[in-house]
Amino acid sequence: MKRRELNPDEREAKLVEVVRQLLAEEINEGDALRILRRDVLGLSQDAYAKLVGISRRTLSDLERNRANITLDTMNRVYRPLGLRVGLLPRQPGMLERALT
């Protein structure tokens, strides 16, 4: 069954929710990438890998949190989603203060 395409507001809401879940450590980076690739962009692994210039196997490894890639590649992978890799505090209290 084909997924319903999201409108721009729905895509942004989904993106914000996934980032919130990631920051709250409810999901990991691989889960976030998979959810966003499928639900926000509606792309297969093959199509997304071609879009960002990596192999489908590397993308699969990323989505399963089994990849060892460079920061540059990580940024290329997240760029179509409007995201970039950055530094965040590990302590929840410090992270909360940084985000408010």
From TrEMBL:
UniProt cross-references to InterPro entries, sorted A to Z: Cro/C1-type_HTH (IPR001387), Lambda_DNA-bd_dom_sf (IPR010982)
SUPFAM superfamilies, per the entry: lambda repressor-like DNA-binding domains
Signal sequence region: none
Residues annotated as domain HTH cro/C1-type: 33-88
Xref: Pfam families: HTH_3 (PF01381)
Gene3D superfamilies: lambda repressor-like DNA-binding domains
Name of the molecule in the record: Helix-turn-helix transcriptional regulator
Lineage: Bacteria, Pseudomonadati, Pseudomonadota, Gammaproteobacteria, Oceanospirillales
